[in-house]
Write a structure and sequence with these properties.
Radius of gyration: 18 Å
Distance between the termini: 34 Å
Strand content: under 5%
Number of helices: 7
Structural class: mainly alpha
CATH class: Mainly Alpha
Bound molecules: fe (ii) ion
Number of domains: 1
Shape: globular
Length: 194
């Protein structure tokens, strides 16, 4: 059940980033914080390159095993598949709003709105996975399924490991984001330097 553990950990990290951005947007709106554009860019990059491109495909692998065992949850799976497929449009809208804000601080409110919409979507998406699908995965996958899907997850992680210098080190990036984010959500060592 290593695969389930990995999905759970990724949800926690992603929720952490969404929460951090929302916190910063609130503090900027209240005039208590200055925008760290590089940190916003790095966080949106993390959402694009990890949340949307690495996380959902692993879930698609896991959900396939469930479909083989039962029809239960098929409606939720169909919705999730559509949401996974819509990742490019969703992240493009967020990136466009951030680009406009970086070019002109007057676009801050539009970026904050775009981010709120993205974070709302993503939270509901994770809740649907955790409440409607992951319990079924726990219930229906057999020992052989777990052996197979855990191996697929390990292979995916090994093939894209940031340790080889050829792929981005997302664990390292996550630590840097947390370190640069303002306290109390991060360690306040910003501005983000990359
Ligand atoms: Fe997902
Ligand atoms: Fe997910």
């Amino acid at each position: 059940m290593e695969a389930l553990h990995i999905i759970g950990e990724e949800h926690q990290s992603l929720a952490g980033i969404l929460h951090a951005v929302r916190y910063m947007l609130k503090e900027i709106t209240a005039g208590r914080l200055e925008a760290d554009l590089k940190l916003f860019q790095a966080m949106v990059h993390y959402l694009e390159a990890y949340a949307e491109k690495r996380h959902h495909p692993k879930e698609d692998l896991l959900f396939k095993y469930l479909e083989k065992r039962t029809d239960e949850g098929s409606e939720a799976l169909a919705r999730l598949a559509l949401q996974h497929a819509a990742a490019p449009q969703r992240i493009a809208a967020l990136q466009d709003a951030l680009t406009a804000f970086v070019a002109n601080p007057g676009n801050f409110a539009d970026f904050a709105r775009a981010f709120d919409a993205y974070a709302d979507f993503y939270r509901n998406h994770m809740m649907l996975e955790e409440e409607a699908v992951l319990p079924l995965v726990r219930k229906y996958l057999t020992d052989e399924d777990w052996t197979a899907v855990d191996a697929e997850f390990r292979a995916e992680m090994a093939a894209n490991s940031g340790k080889d210098g050829k792929h981005e080190d997302f664990a390292g990036l996550f630590s840097k984001l947390v370190s640069a984010a303002p306290a109390p959500i991060g360690f306040g060592s910003g501005p983000f330097k990359g």
